[in-house]
Amino acid sequence: MKKIVIIGGVAAGAKAAAKAKRLLPEAEINLYTDDTHVSYSSCGMPYYIEGNFDDYKMLLVRSPEEFEAQGIHIHLRHRAAKIIPYCKQVLIEDLESKKAALVDYDKLIIATGARAFVPPIKNANLPNVFTLRKIEDAIAIKEKALSSKHATIVGGGYIGIELLEAFVKQNLYVTLVEYSPNIMSIFDDDMSELILNQLNSINNGKFEILTSNLVTEFSGDTNGVNGVRTSTGKYFDTDFVVVCTGVVPNVDIAREAGIVLSETGAIKVNEKMETSECDIYACGDCVDENLLISNTRIWLPLGSNANKEGRCAAMNACGFEDNFYGVLGSAVTRCLGFTMSMTGLSVKKAKQLGFEPIFASVTKYDKVGYMPDVNNITLKLIADKTTRQLIGGQAVGVGDADKRINTLTSALLAKLTVDEFLNNDLTYAPPYSPTIDPLLNAAQILQNKLNNQAED
Ligand SMILES: Cc1cc2nc3c(=O)[nH]c(=O)nc-3n(C[C@H](O)[C@H](O)[C@H](O)COP(=O)(O)OP(=O)(O)OC[C@H]3O[C@@H](n4cnc5c(N)ncnc54)[C@H](O)[C@@H]3O)c2cc1C
């Protein structure tokens, strides 16, 4: 009987376990995680904090008991301390009993994910300074939020702005502090500025976004944090802080086992999710990806990628060939009614990678203007000047921005030129789109630009 051992069990590990059992019902599958929960939706945690649902258990996708009923053994609070590839063994520590044991594997899947990165801020270890990565974090943050008046968020990326919405909806006053001049700086500067302006335009005195401010120090005592100081000399009181300044991949155990890491710092895998060591696979936030547009490595720690990679790792570990060729860099989020979505390369990233980007931006209704729920979206479509190939797009607005980006992903995957894309037969009816969809409108303008014609 094949012994499959999986380390980590949130998205990638849990997916790999379930898939492996379906493929090889006779296999002995053991999943070890140092976490107190398995198979949960980290992505849903901001919406739990926001109060969309009260019971955190709604975030749990599958319980250990459900896994067990399928013949998958889940070992919570068990840390994999060492991988010994030449013996095909893993040293597992039981975090409760403090006992350790060696476990044999035929195939090993590493799904150790990522952890929050906290920059050097003085007194960052005060009580009520949180990061958000695990379910316990979400529970503690929500509990604190419900008894507080002022929340501080450090970092204006995806998680920071999702929490901005969550805390505003919980009737807290929120200060979001961001080091760079813009929030959501993964977008191009013009789009980031738009996001900031749009958020500020609906700000009803409920929050403040401080850009170009580096948090240098928290003040407080054993009762907890009570103030924040920034590089520009600002100081303000707060009841608690959530630091959302990014994540780093959990690769220590892989590195110590001699597994090759990529230049991004994550574990290097091929399209079968194989690592440099025989019979060891890796998937999820601990690995990096091939960026399909440029065939360069990129680390995109996203749940969408983790699930696909977990499935692919399980397929290959079980002897069924499967390939995960890479990612486009598609992402979406929402803050206070605004959708922000992107795929492919931004103009700034395209330039870094040696493309010659050319773009068109439009601000249009998302459906016909007489419809009662019509809203604007701003859409930026990017192509390479030489090849005319579409290489990226970004959309922001109260209107349906995400639909346009999801349409564009297929075009990027198929490496369509702007000219080919203009043949796209998109649906039209007044509740869904104007007669010419904003996406096609942007493509027309882009084609004109490429042909050096006047915009129309
Ligand atoms: C607040 C938040 C919102 C998000 N929203 C989105 C979203 O909207 N869309 C999206 O695509 N992505 C989103 N993400 C990202 C997404 O949640 C992650 O990409 C996904 O959880 C990655 O899954 P994973 O299994 O690879 O890693 P993780 O979720 O990091 O899980 C790894 C697990 O392995 C355990 N582990 C680590 N080392 C060991 C060891 N040595 N021994 C045993 N166990 C170990 C860890 O404790 C952890 O439980 C969000 C993340 C957060 C935190």
Q: Tell me what the CATH architecture of the largest domain is.
A: 3-Layer(bba) Sandwich
How many structural domains in the coordinates?
A: 3
Task: Please name the fourth-level CATH homologous superfamily of the largest domain.
Answer: FAD/NAD(P)-binding domain
Please bin the fraction of helical residues.
25-40%
Strand line-up of the largest beta sheet: 3-2-1-7-18
The number of strands is: 25
Report, as a whole number of angstroms, the end-to-end distance: 66 Å
Under CATH, the topology of the largest domain is which?
A: FAD/NAD(P)-binding domain
Shape: globular
Approximate strand percentage:
25-35%
* Uncertain residue segments: none
Total number of helices: 12
Mean pLDDT: 97
- Main sheet: strands, sense, barrel: 5 strands, parallel
Walk me through this protein's architecture:
- It is a single chain.
- The protein is α/β, with parallel strands linked by helices and 456 residues long.
- The protein has three domains: 3-43 and 58-114 and 248-317, 3-Layer(bba) Sandwich (FAD/NAD(P)-binding domain); 129-245, FAD/NAD(P)-binding domain, CATH 3.50.50; 340-450, Enolase-like, domain 1 (2-Layer Sandwich).
- It is built from twelve helices and 25 strands.
- It has a five-stranded parallel beta sheet. Strands 9-16-10-11-12 form a five-stranded parallel beta sheet, with helices on one face. A five-stranded antiparallel beta sheet has the order 21-22-25-24-23, sandwiched between helices.
- Helix 1 packs parallel to helix 8 (303-317).
- Flavin-adenine dinucleotide binds at residues 7-8, 10-13, 32-35, 42-43, 45-46, 79-80, 111-114, 132-133, 159, 250, 253, 284-285, 301-304, 306.
